Structures are given as C-alpha cells and as structure tokens.
Amino acid sequence: MKNAEVKHRCAANWLFFVSCLVPSLSFAQVVPASPNTSQQGQVETHMVPVTATRRLVFDVVVTGKSHKPVESLAQQDFTVLDDGHPVQIEQFSLIHGASADPPPQLFFLIDEVNATDQEVIYTFASIKRFLTQSQGQLAYPTSLVFFTESGIQVQTLPSRDGRSLATALDRVGVSRRLIEQRSGFWGSNELLNRSLAALTTFIEQERTKPGRKIVLWISPGWPLFDSVLSSLLPSQEQSIFNFSKFFSNGLQDDRITLDCIDPSGAADAGTMYSARYLGFLKPLESPERAEFGDIALQVIAAQSGGNVLIGNDSLLNYFKHSIDDLDLYYEITIPTAESSRENPFHDLKVKVSQPGLKVRTIDGYYRYQ
Predict the structure, then answer these.
(1) Which DSSP category does 21 fall into?
(2) Contact by Cβ (8 Å): 48, 81
(3) How far, rounded to the nearest angstrom, does the alpha carbon of residue 27 sit from its chain's CA centroid?
(4) At what angle do helices 162-172 and 117-132 cross, to 10 degrees?
(5) How many domains does the chain have?
(6) Is the backbone of residue 154 left (phi > 0), alpha (psi -120 to 50) or beta?
(7) Is the model's pTM score more than 0.85?
(8) How far apart are CA 193 and CA 185, in angstroms?
(9) Which residues contact 320 (CB under 8 A, 6 or more apart)?
(10) Which are the contacts of 335, defined by CB distance < 8 A and separation ≥ 6?
(11) In terms of residue numbers, what domain contains 137?
(12) Sign of the dihedral through C-alpha 267, 113, 15, 180
C-alpha cells in the first residue's frame, strides 16, 4: 500500500474515532421567542426578515487603544449584521463582571499533551504566581483544568481563594508522560486525536452550567497536518466540518470564550508556524472547503471571540490581558434567521459608531437543526 494511502486511512480512522465522541450537534445560546415580544413594527424595512422563532445571546468586548474595555456605549451605538444585513437588537446590557449574577468564571487549562516539558513547567510557575499575588484574592471564581494523556480533568471547584488553588496546583504537579513523544505524521495523529477529544469533553462537561466563562487554554496548539496531507477524502472533509460546527455551537451554547495562550514565547513569535492559523480564520461554510487548519486551536479561539496570544510577553501579562475581558462587556440578543442548506453558516459582524475602537465577539452561528 502506498505511503500516502496509509496516511489517508489513518487520518480517516482517528476522525471516525473522535467523531464518535461528538454528540448530536446543538445550537448556540438560544432562547425561544415569546409571541408577545415581537417588535416587527419597529424594524426598518432594510433589515433582514426574520422568520425563525429563536434568539441568539452573545457577548461583545469593545476596547480602545490601551486595550481597556470601553463602557461609554449605548445600544444605539451598535449595529449587528447577519450575513451583511442589519438585524434588530432585542435585548442589550452592559455587564460589569464583578457584580454579574452569576459571576463570570475563569478556567486555567494546562495543556500537558501538546506543550513541551519546559513549557508546562513555565505554565505551572506562571499560574501559581498569578494565584498568589494580591494575597491570593481572585476577582472571579477560578478553576484548574489539566489536559494530560489521561484526558481532560477539572481538578478544582470554582474558587476565589488563590492560595488554596495554588496548593492544589502543587499537589497535582506536572504529570509524567506515559506515551513516547513521536515526531512526524504518526505522532501528530495521536496529538490531534487526543486534543479534539479533550475539547469535546470539556464542552460537554460545561453544557448545563450557567453564566459566562473564559477558558485560558495554555498551549502552542495541536498539529495542523497541512504539510502532510495535500488533499483530503470526502469523509475527512465532512468530519472536519462537523467538528468545526460542533465547536462553534458548543462554545456559544456554553457561553464560553476560548483564549489560546502560547507558552513558547519568543521561540514561536513571528515565525511562519505561529502565523499559520491566520489563513483559516474565515468560517467554514461547507465540507468541500474543509482543511485541518479549520479546527486548529487558535482558529477555534479566535472564532469564539477570544484572544490568540503569541509573542515574547510573559504569561502573567497574557493572563491579565485575557481576564480584562471579564471586567466589562456587552450582552446582546438578536433573532436568528433562516439559512439555506447549501450554506448553514451565518456570518455575524458587530460595528460601533465610535471610530478607533476594536470589537471582539463570535464570528457567527450555524443554522439550528
């Protein structure tokens, strides 16, 4: 059997295996529309007609030049475009994380599978330093999550006691790698298999828990395979599309913003490897366009409205940058629109009237099924 065919069959096997872990695809954070809340009389004629009976709830972070959240905006300063068409904002709230009920929750997710030993040790030290600063008083309920060769494990209940979390971190310690670290296709195949299963498991674990969440996935990311497989089988393309849709809907449904923080620092900063994900940020609209890069960690994070932090700054500063997003943000509710079967994805854009501001939110939603 030719080597390329072996690789294709291997990739197809792990895609089938991991896809068995993905439950039936669900929609984003949606609530049924009650008949007496329709405001069609107030909708301008150029707005997109809405025939669906569901609403999408999502969070928006607006920052200025100093990267600090901006709180001086009102509902009339926002325009939401669904596939390029303005839609009515049905509900609008300015949320201060410190007083939110329930409060936003923070997860430190330590990736011991894709990171090197040195990167994991640096991650542990940086998280411990963060937890113990300011006398261990944390602004938000925080949990520790470990991704090891045994899978994904949430080790602690949410707590604002940084010192107790630091003690738990010391008690867990850096796991010993039980599986030989292999390079090339076969090693990458195993890493990707485990990584997709871990994210799937985490989404399912958080599905019924209320409130907004930010997950700091501290990792250089998992393999993309773009230099190994130049073409994909239709079954592989469909599996990648299914994963992309599941991750998008699942993160939205759980109100999770995923931040990818690369612990490799200057080693990857500015390299071609660190920038590869940029070519896959456009949402995947059909299986025929699927590539492994469409389910890269950095891509999933950016599409969830999260940060992708790669560079030579310290992890401690990156943590602060991410957590700033919880201090102040906007919650917006819009009606969802129908989709065609040919293109189930709805591109979502949020614009603000004030110039010079950066808006970060989800990139869209997939049609409800």
Answers:
(1) T
(2) no
(3) 15
(4) 160
(5) 1
(6) beta
(7) no
(8) 12
(9) none
(10) 33, 50, 52, 54, 55, 56, 87, 88, 90
(11) 1-369
(12) positive
DSSP string for 144-211: EEEEETTEEEE-S--EEEHHHHHHHHHHH-PPPP-S----HHHHHHHHHHHHHHHHHHHHHHTTT--S
Looking up tokens 């099924």 gives 369
At residue 1's C-alpha, the angle toward residues 232 and 195, to 5°, is 45
More confident site: 85 or 10: 85
Predicted confidence at residue 20, as pLDDT, reads 46
> Which pLDDT tens digit goes with each residue over 31-59?
333 333 333 333 333 444 444 457 899 99
- Return the beta strands (E) in 196-285 as ranges: 213-218, 256-261
How big is the chain by its Cα radius of gyration, in Å? 21
- Percent of the chain with pLDDT strictly greater than 90: 62
- Average pLDDT on 257-271 reads 76
Place of tokens 């999933």: 300
Beta strands in 224-292 (DSSP E): 256-261
Under a CB-based contact definition with an 8 Å cutoff, are residues 251 and 304 in contact?
yes
pLDDT per residue as tens digits for the range 142-192: 999 999 988 999 987 899 999 999 999 999 887 655 444 545 555 678 889
CA 58 to chain CA centroid, Å, is 13
Where do we find the tokens 């905006």?
Answer: 73
pLDDT digits 0-9 by tens, 187-216: 678 889 899 999 999 999 999 899 999 999
Tokens standing for residue 244: 């992309």
What is the spatial distance between Cα 347 and Cα 353, in angstroms, rounded to a whole number? 20
